[in-house]
Each structure stands twice: as structure tokens, then as C-alpha cells.
Amino acid sequence: MGQVPLPHRPGQILDATGALVGDALAWVGGVSAFGARAVREAFRPPFEVGETLRQLHEIGWRSVPLVAAAGLAIGVVLSMHTRDSLERFGAESRIPAGLALALVRETGPLLAALLVAGRVGAGIGAELGAMNVTEQIDALEAGAVDSFKYLAVTRIVACVIALPLLTAIVDFSGMFGGFLAEHAVSGIDFGLYFHRSFELMAFDDFVPATLKTAVFGLVIGTVASYLGFTTREGTAGVGRASTRSVVLASISIILINVILVKFIFTVYPGQP
Question: How far apart are CA 164 and CA 159, in angstroms?
Fold first, then answer.
């Protein structure tokens, strides 16, 4: 038998790497241009108020049970871990404040964004992808409707508005879950627990961390809408668009969060 050629030669690896990097950069460029166009169109009339409100109901209100339940569970878990750590230093009285700061500054915003990316990102990608492959988007254009503004901009704006509100719900649910866990262990009073929770919290702790989720909403809406608008290959493409919406939006959120945290610490250097 002759010698079997190696499937991974250096030249092939370089070619494959170059193609992968090129595809990634092309995708980032396409999404960025799509998002920039959406931001520009969001401030130009006509404004699709009715469709935006409908999407806000779908994206925001219908996500409340999910984010509230997740926040409650995370609050219970964080309370148990915080107690286990602070008990070693005799600082049990700081458990509510530590939990509140952890939730408000980082855990709450990131949890809300990832939950919405999973629930809403997949839905937007699949819905717009199905409309694209069945030529419903072309039908809207034929009816003199701006499909980009009606379908993409309304969903992106709804995501931007909904994320900070959902983050506030996650924060409160997490604090309430922490209270339930702490009350079960130490019997702490409701009023005292929340007094201690906000004892060390300042305006600079809550507002920047919550407002940064508007950027997460922009990322989720833009990535999912872009993948839906560029869906090809029929129903198989719709499934891929749905899956890729969740994966790529989640990865983008995690990476952008690093940049935003650094930016917040630069603007508000008083934060530890």
C-alpha cells in the first residue's frame, strides 16, 4: 500500500486558519454595519411604535417569569456561598451587603443578558429566518413596507429597552432569594436585611451596571436579526440561524462585558 498523505500539512493549516479569520472578520463587519444602520434608522421617522410595543411585550414582559425565577435561585445560592465565606471572618452581618453588591454590579446584568440571549435570540433568529426563506420579507417590501425598520429595528429597540428593566427584576429577585435563604438560617427580619443590603451601595454601583445591559440588548437584537435576515438554505438554515443566534450573542455579550467593566472602572475609579 502507498503512503497515506497527511491531512493536516502546514500549508493547509495556514489556509484553513486564514479562511476562518477572514470569515470571522467578514461576519463582524456585517453585524457591525447592520447594527449601525439599525441605530441610525431608529431615530428616523416613521417610527413603528405599535410593532415596537408588541415586541417589547414579547421580549420583555414574557421574559419576566424566567428572569425572576433565575434571579431567585441565584440569590439563594449566592447567599449560601457568601455565608460560608464570611462566617470564617466573623462577618455574617455583611452577608446582605455582599450579596447585593455582587448581584447589582455583575451577576444580575450578566445573568439577565444571557437568559434573554437564550430565550429571545433564538426566537428572533428563527422567526426572521423563516420569514426570509419563505419570502415573506420580500412580500413586505413589495407592499411598500420598510422590512428592515419594521422587523429588525423594532426588535433591536425592544431589546435595548427591555434589558435594563429585566436586570432590575433579576437584582430584586436575587436579593429576595438571599433574604429567604438568610431568614431560614438566622431568622433575620425583612426590613433589617434590606437595610443592610443597601447600606454600602451607592448610586454609582447600580446605574452604570444596569445601563450597560442596554448595550447587551443592542448586541442580542442585532446579532439575532442579522442572522435571520441572512438565512439561506431553507428550513435547515432557519435551525442554524436560531442556534447561532444564541451562541454568537452569548459569546459577544461575555466579551463586550469585559470591555464595559473596564470602562466603568475607568469612569468611576472609586469602585473597588
Answer: 9
